[in-house]
Predict the 3D structure of the following.
Amino acid sequence: MSKIILITGASSGFGKATATKFAAGGWNLILTGRRKEKLDELAKALEASYGIKTLCLTFDVQDKKAVFDNLQNLPTEWQAINILVNNAGLALGRDSFENANLEDWETMIDTNVKGLLYASKAVLPMLIKEKGHIINIGSTAGKEVYKDGNVYCASKHAVDAISKAQRIDLLPYQIKVTAIHPGAADTEFSLVRFKGDAEKANAVYTGYTPLMAEDIADTVWYVANTPAHVCINDLVITCVAQANSMYLQK
Ligand code: NDP
Ligand code: 8X3
């Protein structure tokens, strides 16, 4: 029987590439995000190409009720979830502490931290049953704080801490918990961060070869396919031009 992976934030970037990678490997997919058309389009294409099954769920991970209503009322055939990828997330703005926007801060905390907690809690009983795997997408921003990164960095440090906590507290259930921390990757991330300013967003990725979404999908695939007794706990991945959050050679 095909295995099931649930990916939050599957409508673009890492989530979309991960969905494609796992579909090619014969997995059935639960795809979530806010943009229904993007999810439906992806699901249709992957079903046609790989003959797998998909379930698209449209909700905002900031909305606690919506997360639990959707994930705790899955059709029976979708409840045996083997992997949860907590990927939905964003940065908003890149401003110094005194200039940063409070609403941006709240959205980042509500999405990157609270959304990840809600999804993990909602899916946990199913993961326990399957002895499953939680894969949290952190960031190099969760390893070192960089200038004007303040609350985005804090939210990803929280992802790092929550991943460690999950690994400890869920030990009795033999659940694997992996945190993947990517550096700069060319997705819609910077377009969202700079609120649609394509020039600013493109500038983030010029002058070097950044990671691509597929690099992270390959990494998710790798950590998901280790032997049953092996858990990759924590993995930092950058392009060759980047050493960490602060050093990038253009
Ligand atoms: P994208 O902007 O391409 O994708 C983000 C995904 O998250 C989209 O599918 C979006 O779907 C979803 N999402 C955002 N907010 C919400 C929300 N409130 N509710 C539900 N879904 C949401 O960026 P990436 O693929 O790059 O980002 C994926 C993850 O990787 C994020 O957690 C990001 O912080 C992290 N990351 C990114 C790096 C990069 O340089 N690109 C590096 C390190 C980490 P929709 O808009 O349809 O809701
Ligand atoms: C995304 C990478 O460097 O913009 O997490 O923080 S960075």
In short: Residues 9-15, 33-35, 38, 60-62, 87-90, 111, 137, 139, 182, 184-185, 187-189, 192 surround NDP (ligand 1) (CB under 6 Å). The chain has eight helices and nine strands. The chain has one domain: 4-237.
